[in-house]
């Protein structure tokens, strides 16, 4: 009986582990997304996690906000940004906003409509589970329908609208407050769903926010991760 109980507990523990679903970099290609402006001027589009699903193209990237330090990447979906509140872009100073933004892009050249879901991370701890991520669209907010159009924008985790009001009767999720001064790992996923809610594909990235002066070390770290990922793919 003891052996059976222990075995059962181990199975339950393994199941819980398997159910954990942190975001991992996901894309069809990583590189230039021609024509993407992310709703602004001068926003780089040469390092984008691009996923193509039929007539739909999804894209996610991270970039510096205005004149803040540039955001680097390891070529496989992991970005390194400088942590800290944006106090340098007068007259657009926003101390409660990060010094970096994330850019999102979705384009549908066909006639079939889809739903978009955007997940984003306020928790600087690594490996945040998908269930704990914020949602701008999807089950907890008004679904964004992607018809034959292009949607793109550049957002910051400090923007208050990323804490949307919860519909009546729905238990609101508990999101940690975002502190731009805290270093850590932040994850993002742009998900395409059919009108029944089934996931068809996604583009996903990670952003490592590091202390000012540690960006070079962070770039070295993500570079090493890129080499490891490349070696795994080649093997």
Summary keywords:
single chain; 235 residues; alpha+beta; Immunoglobulin-like; 7-stranded mixed β-sheet; 5-stranded antiparallel β-sheet; 16% helix; 34% strand; globular; disordered N terminus; disordered C terminus
Describe the structure.
- The protein is an alpha+beta fold.
- It has one domain: Immunoglobulin-like (Sandwich).
- It is built from 2 helices and 14 strands.
- Strands 4, 5, 9, 10, 11, 13 and 14 form a 7-stranded mixed β-sheet that branches. Strands 1-2-3-8-12 form a 5-stranded antiparallel β-sheet, with no helix packed on it.
- A hairpin with a 2-residue loop joins strand 2 and strand 3 (56-64).
- The longest helix has 20 residues, at 215-234.
- The protein is globular, with a radius of gyration of 19 Å.
- 36% of the residues are buried.
- Mean pLDDT is 83; it is low at 1-18 and 224-235.
């Amino acid at each position: 009986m003891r052996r059976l109980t222990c075995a059962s507990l181990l199975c339950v523990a393994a199941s819980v582990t398997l159910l954990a679903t942190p975001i991992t970099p996901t894309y069809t290609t990583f590189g230039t997304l021609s024509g993407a402006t992310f709703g602004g001027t001068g926003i780089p589009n040469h390092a984008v996690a691009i996923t193509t699903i039929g007539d739909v193209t999804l894209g996610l990237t991270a970039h510096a906000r205005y004149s803040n330090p540039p955001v680097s990447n390891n070529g496989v979906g992991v970005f390194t940004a400088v942590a800290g509140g944006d106090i340098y872009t007068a007259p657009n100073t926003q101390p409660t906003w990060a010094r970096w933004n994330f850019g999102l892009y979705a384009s549908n050249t066909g006639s079939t409509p889809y739903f978009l879901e955007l997940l984003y991370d306020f928790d600087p701890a690594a490996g945040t589970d998908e269930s704990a991520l914020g949602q701008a669209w999807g089950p907890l907010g008004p679904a964004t329908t992607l018809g034959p159009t292009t949607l793109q924008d550049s957002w910051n985790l400090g923007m208050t609208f990323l804490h949307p009001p919860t519909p009546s009767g729905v238990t609101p999720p508990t999101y940690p407050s975002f502190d731009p001064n805290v270093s850590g790992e932040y994850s993002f996923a742009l998900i395409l769903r059919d009108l029944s809610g089934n996931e068809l594909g996604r583009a996903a990235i990670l952003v490592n926010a590091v202390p000012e002066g540690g960006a070079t070390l962070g770039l070295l770290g993500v570079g090493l991760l890129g080499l490891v990922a490349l070696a795994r793919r080649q093997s």
